Amino acid sequence: MSRRHPHIELLAPARDADIGIAAIDHGADAVYIGGPDFGARVNAGNPVSEIARLVAHAHRYHARIFVTLNTILRDDELEPARRMVHQLHDAGVDALIVQDMALLQLDIPPIQLHASTQTDIRTPEKARFLQDVGFSQMVLARELTLPQIQAIAAQVQDATLEFFIHGALCVAYSGLCNISHAYTGRSANRGSCSQECRQPYTVTDQAGHIIAHDKHVLSLKDNNQTDNLRALVDAGIRSFKIEGRYKDLAYVKNATAHYRQHLDQILEAQPELARGSSGTCSYTFTPEPERNFNRSGTDYFVNGRQIDIGAFDTPKFAGIPLGEVVATGPEHLDFTIQHDATPMNNGDGITWWDLQGELQGVPLNSVRLIDERKRLWRGLPNQAMAELKDLRKGVPLFRNRDMAWDRVLDKPSAERRIDADLLLSDSDDRLTLWATDAEGHCGQASLDIALQPARDAARAEAQWTDALGKLGTTLFRLRDLTLAVRQPWFAPASAMNQLRREAIAALEAARAEARPRLTRAAAVEPPVPYPERTLSFLANVYNHAARDFYARHGVEVIASAYESHEQLGEASLMVTKHCVRFSLSLCPKQAKGVTGVQGTIRAEPLVLKHGDDLLELRFDCKPCEMHVVGRMQKHVLREATRAEAAQPIQFYRQRPKPAHA
Question: Could you write out the DSSP letters of every residue in 150-218?
């Protein structure tokens, strides 16, 4: 889909086919889901048969299914990946989201390719290159500002620009983080991140002075671009992506419905834009994303660098404000709830902050209202009160689980229908019903019947209207019914029901016939040059096909991926736009112009410590980036050596295989 055809796509995540179907029902124009293997979420794979079931449901609404094949691949994995692509194409999958350029070298069917966020798209030059080698859609880096997005849009005319608008934020530029592999042997580029960024660290300066103690300084708040959607549309974004292939059903329903409603408002105000699929949704609930797990919200860098983007106190979900503790007993606590808080239910979860600033929480086995006027409740937690740290009178409470809300979203909570018009006409001994949807697709069915005038014309017309309007559990919602007949005729209700069913089936068949299949974009020939002539290990080249791809596009020096274990000394294990100095108000730029402070603060390295692990933060102030520097742990190398000896594998190395100790 080219930006020349300005369709707006809401792209939702799915851990499995059932969640994907719910995402479609709640308004998604497209869903991305992991395939049987090689998706960047190691525990979120799905068999092809389940993906085919999701495809069938989505295509009825002309929605699309994208499968993630966005890990980096070893040489011995290329053939299994190629076979899997053929299976996915046969199942009707619309596109693959990929990181490894080896996929462009393989003999795969003409399935559309999308560039994953793992390809680190931050510049117009990189985006234009990816368009020119055959990518039809690309996920831009989350760190971009509106002007940077506009600059990319000016250079990319034939590919759709996609942007994350909601969910968890990876602190690193996607694809440029190797901390997990260095410390645990679990590669983020291969779908197995250990989330070292969510750990607490003590931050010290070069002299050993403690700047922050046990703070989650690499942990970010969650992405929320609700207020920036219109600006992102104006900047050139056409696909709006919700993060969350590990998230549960309630999260996907809630977030999808929320952004569906907001994007529909934009579409209504800007008629030159069109929806990315068919139908409109109605809901049994009011979407509230803050009710799902989140670490509070940030719009990150879209409107420039902000100081308050970190979730430094906890990576957990604190919940939404609830009330305050009034009294405690040996087995219970009494608390008031705010006027805007919904009533409590057995099983609700509460949280609070202890005196050390740590988040505590407990489920309430039972609750009861003891004073309606004061909104006073009594709760019995599932732990002894003596074990609940610093839960005392006056402590503010939050609710991080609302059982009533959960029950609403556990049930069917949305209905998606396509408007359709019906027209009944007659001729000699035949009735014909025409069914036309809101997009102009048309189906028809005829009934050969000896037409006899109805004895009661008004009653016959009412019966026809009733029988033809029963669209029930079909995709369609009756918008208009026209009886273009010479007069009301007698016809059995069973015959009219059959006529309706056949016309609706013909309309569905017409929609299926008219649904365009996304096609693979052709690469520009001769091969366009890559924007750089040298690639470091951060380019994640892990197989010879990817190496050959870059060489064919003019790259002269191609290092192997970090997973090849050739970077044994200090290395940038993470490159990030997040700056710990800035977030702790220690950036030299913040001191500029401040009397008595300017010139006293320098961007010297800082040290992070978690247990025995040490990492150094180095600051590159010209591009305003931070590098987290460290070494690969010896136990990771030893385990890799043992694993390779037990089961030989093939991957790209720039240098001869090192001899591990």
Answer: HHHHHH-SSSEEEEEEEE---SSPTT-B-HHHHHHS--GGGT----GGGS-EEEE-TT--EEEEEE-TT
